[in-house]
Amino acid sequence: MAEFKNERELLREVRERLDGWLYEVREQAFADLFCGPDAILSDGELRLLDRTDSTLSREQGQGLWNGDEYGIVPTGTMDEESVPHVVCTIHPQLPEYGYPGDESIDDETRERLNDALWDYCERVAELAQHELEEFVWSAEVDTWSE
Hints:
Radius of gyration: 18 Å
Distance between the termini: 17 Å
Number of domains: 1
Shape: elongated
Strand content: 5-15%
């Protein structure tokens, strides 16, 4: 069991572990939303999203799947919660006008794909939050209170 002198030390450790948790949960979030009979996108829509991601990665250096970013919100800043929260700070989305190397996607499809990207990021944050909570509640902190 990890032991910390105060919440600040715990928060520092949580922030250092965040990338590892994100790496671990991304595959599960993808499977939850995009695989199986309850997938939120059709195979064709997922291929379109992947093609657009690939094009954006080549032409702009950052695609859609690696465009999300996450952070840790300390305790007491969100509804007086007692544990830090994982939040998505940047949700990737398809550009509104034109796509590098590809023809424009209609508004309805773009909105559907952007909604799917949003849901994916939120699922990643939710799964990482679970990992964070398991770690936090197993840690000993002198000033920790539930």
